[in-house]
Each structure stands twice: as C-alpha cells, then as structure tokens.
C-alpha cells in the first residue's frame, strides 16, 4: 500500500479532519499531531479500539497544544498527518504551505 493510500485509510478509519504535506515520504509509522478537543474523539476512539492496527496501520498519536502546532509539525516533517481547525488549515495554505486536506470533521449546534 502506498503512503498516500495509508494516509487516506487512516483518515477514513478515524473519520476526522486530517491533513498532510504533499512532500511526505513513505514511513513505517504514521504520526498524527493532534490538539485536544471534541473533533479529535473519532481518532482517539479508532486508536483505543484498535481500528488502525486492524487495518495494518502503525499510528502514533502526538499531542500538541494547538492546531497551528500540528500544522507546523507537518510542515517541518516530524509528523505525517495533523488534525486542525479548517481556519488554521486555510491560513497555512494561504501562506504557501504545501498541504492537502484529506478529510473534514465538523461539529455544529442546531436549534429547533
């Protein structure tokens, strides 16, 4: 399986917003930088229940203080994936970082 396919698979399993730098190379381990928050729950559940392992993915979750730190980690090459708010992602892309979004997670409050 190619590295890009592994990233897409990890994103699909987690069902969450992940992004990656276009220059990432194949790795034995996929490191995901993530800050705390409700949007990260699917990734934590996937890890806790062994879904990544079941699919042959060796995922290493790396906690960071903020989504911007997660994007910096991807851009710097210390992780292959990041979970970040869409505004942080778009800001980084607008500044020229070569990032690609591979999944989107959102939460909303609806009122009746």
In percent, how helical is the residue content? 25-40%
**In the CATH hierarchy, what is the superfamily?**
Periplasmic binding protein-like II
Number of helices: 5
Cα-to-Cα separation, first versus last residue: 46 Å
Q: Give the C-level CATH assignment.
A: Alpha Beta
Strand order of the largest sheet: 3-2-4
Number of domains: 1
Question: Would you identify the regions where 5 or more consecutive residues have pLDDT less than 50?
Answer: 20-27
Major β-sheet annotation:
3 strands, parallel
CATH topology: D-Maltodextrin-Binding Protein, domain 2
Query: What is the general shape?
Result: globular
The total strand number stands at 5
**Architecture, CATH level 2?**
3-Layer(aba) Sandwich
Please provide a brief summary of the model:
With 112 residues, the chain is α/β, with parallel strands linked by helices. It is built from five helices and five strands; from the N terminus they run αββααβαβαβ.
Q: How would you characterize this protein structure?
A:
The chain has 112 residues and is α/β, with parallel strands linked by helices. It has a single domain, classed as Periplasmic binding protein-like II (D-Maltodextrin-Binding Protein, domain 2), CATH 3.40.190. It is 38% helix and 16% strand. The chain has five helices and five strands, in the order H-E-E-H-H-E-H-E-H-E. The chain is globular and about 35 Å long. The chain starts with a helix and ends in an 11-residue tail after the last strand. The relative contact order is 0.26. The model is unreliable at 20-27 (pLDDT under 50).
